[in-house]
Amino acid sequence: MRAAQLTAWRQPLALTTLPDPTPGKGEVVLRVLACGVCRSDWHAWTGSDPDVALPMVPGHEFCGEVVAAGAEVTRWRVGDRVIAPFILACGRCGDCAAGHQTICAHQQVPGFTRDGAFAEFIAVPFADTNLTALPDGLPPHVAAGLGCRVTTAWQALVGRAELRPGEWLAVFGAGGVGISALLLGRALGARVAMVDVVPEKLAYASSLGADVVINAADVDAAQAVRDLTGGGAHVAVEALGVETTMTGAMRALRKLGRLVMIGMPAGEHTAMTLPMDVLYSGQLTLQGTRGMPAWRYPSLLSLIDGGHLDLSPLVTRTIALSQASDELAAFDRPAPPGVAVITDFQT
């Protein structure tokens, strides 16, 4: 199969031919229909993620068509089109039984702990536990985001912050997960303030219905959020994983506000100095989140099927496998609005 392989940190991916995967027990092999290029892939590409050992095929945000099923797979047949969460939980441990698949001790993560979906085919473990049918009306390039960015934002807003209609949501970072939070927040009936330093991203967020856009390069973003929302956001989402945005998100909250950290802290950002006086005096709730348990897919897909959520604006460019390296390198600087999704695995 054709694949793009990470063989050295911060170097172009090697376009190569690898053996087609075969399914083990409980696994299926998918023909990859689409795979997003995510900021988390950039962390792997830079060598910031300790789980990644070279060589590795990146790609964790994908959907595909079943082409082979291994022993003990009961839910899926050849020809089924499916979505996969990026955290592939075992489905058998105590955490999985309690519905907490994202903390499964036996989890596997494509592109990080095993080869991912920057390839024509991918083997997916624990298939019966994790896979969800791809709705007929959802194009693969849009559905790819349901593997990471959209579902991570959904878990943050619904599973962690319990965002309610009419509340103010402040999103710090207008990249892929930030725009996902914007679209989902509006669908849930919240008012949304978007914070970034890239004018083009803020203009795009405004075109998608953000109630307020704030350029943190020009103003004190936290103070602007408090002023424009009448006292601060009820919920804040941090979507970059850096100290500056974490601090801003904390300071942007009203008392009893809830902050969910979605951004992956890596490298120099694994340790941060935060305003704990704000946490204490505001009686804030500070939470982390990573991925989404597979059992939450039905509620999200129902929102989409009911016409209450259009995710298509999230994807602003579809690319070939050979262009993945350029997209990864683009995260070294302010990337263009929206996300890139690989749909052509031949060129």
Automatic annotation (TrEMBL):
This is Zinc-dependent alcohol dehydrogenase family protein. The keyword Zinc applies. PANTHER family: ALCOHOL DEHYDROGENASE-RELATED (PTHR43401:SF5), L-THREONINE 3-DEHYDROGENASE (PTHR43401). It comes from Ruegeria marisflavi. PROSITE patterns: ADH_ZINC (PS00059). Belongs to the zinc-containing alcohol dehydrogenase family. CDD domains: Zn_ADH6. Residues 10-342 form the Enoyl reductase (ER) domain.
